[in-house]
Amino acid sequence: MRIAFIGGGNMAQALMIGLQQRGFSMQHITVVDPDTTKHTTLQTALGVTTADSATEALLAVDVIVIAVKPQQLQQVAQTLAPLLNAQLVVSVAAGIRTADLSRWLGGYPTIIRTMPNTPAQIQSGITGAFALPAVSAAQRTQADDLLQAAGEVVWLDDEVQLDAVTAISGSGPAYVFLMIEALSAAGVALGLSEAQSLQLSLATFKGASLLAAGSQTPIATLREQVTSKGGTTEQGLLSMRQHDIHGMMQHAAEQAARRAKELGDQLGAQA
Ligand SMILES: NC(=O)C1=CN([C@@H]2O[C@H](COP(=O)(O)OP(=O)(O)OC[C@H]3O[C@@H](n4cnc5c(N)ncnc54)[C@H](OP(=O)(O)O)[C@@H]3O)[C@@H](O)[C@H]2O)C=CC1
Ligand SMILES: O=C(O)[C@@H]1CCC=N1
After folding, report:
1. Which of the listed residues 59, 68, 112 should we mutate to test ligand 1's pocket, taking the one with most ligand atoms within 8 A of CB?
2. In a shared domain, residues 221 and 248
3. Do 113 and 98 contact (CB within 8 A), yes or no?
4. Number of domains observed in the structure of the chain
5. Over the chain (271 residues), what is each successive 10-residue block's mean pLDDT?
6. Binding region
7. What is the pTM of this model?
8. Looking at the structure, do residues 100 and 63 belong to the same domain, yes or no?
9. For atom 7 of ligand 2, which residue has the closest CA?
């Protein structure tokens, strides 16, 4: 499979590192990004070919992954439109709907909209994906192979659900990083050194996540197994409930999903 990435920023790099870790032939990847300061790093660290603008020859690939910011997508799509020739187009942009991208690409039919996340770079990502009906079974398999290099893939039948995926797993790593920062800061406030508090917090998130992911036991039961009657956890959880942890997470996800829809509405309204 030959791949062209349009945009070589954070998300594209996370996907490419995932592909590299999986042993993908990196010489089969071209990255188009006008920010030439990124080119040397992309070439030396990842072994990919770089270019500052797209040409028909550079886009003679099987899959084009568009990984620019949603605000840049319309302009990028209009530049790509005359250069396309039946390649599969995969978008990772938050909020932007396939109908709008297809229109910007001149009525292009073979598009898969996805929402990956940055743990892709250690093959521990998860991607939500939605394919337009014109995408062939072979192209869907190609996209699945590409995305599986980054971790799990969840195929959706309803594109609207991608805004929820964005709010949960697309943005989710940032929520988790914030929680690690917060737990670690709490440890420092209780007298631990910064280094040891971070070590304890990181190992706790990692251990609890691995235990939960690898166990048949319901998460609530795993939580109860930590919570000794009359013990310490009970007090910690009580405080978290008093501060409405569920409401906080619900509100955060709602705000992220609202923003994904807003990006789709506002940017998708462009001709
Ligand atoms: N970061 C994340 O965790 C996730 C991001 N996404 C999506 O991925 C997309 C990219 O996000 P992210 O990687 O964070 O953003 P970045 O800004 O890191 O990457 C975008 C890159 O595209 C470049 N670019 C701008 N214009 C063009 C152009 N005309 N042709 C080619 N490249 C161009 C940008 O250059 P310059 O900086 O000079 O503008 C930049 O290097 C977004 O749509 C986002 O919604 C999806 C899931 C998770
Ligand atoms: O914050 C953003 O808009 C992108 C999409 C999901 C993660 N990062």
Report:
1. 68
2. yes
3. yes
4. 2
5. 96 94 95 95 96 96 98 97 96 98 97 97 96 97 94 97 98 98 98 98 98 97 98 98 98 98 96 83
6. 6-11, 67-70
7. 0.96
8. yes
9. 171
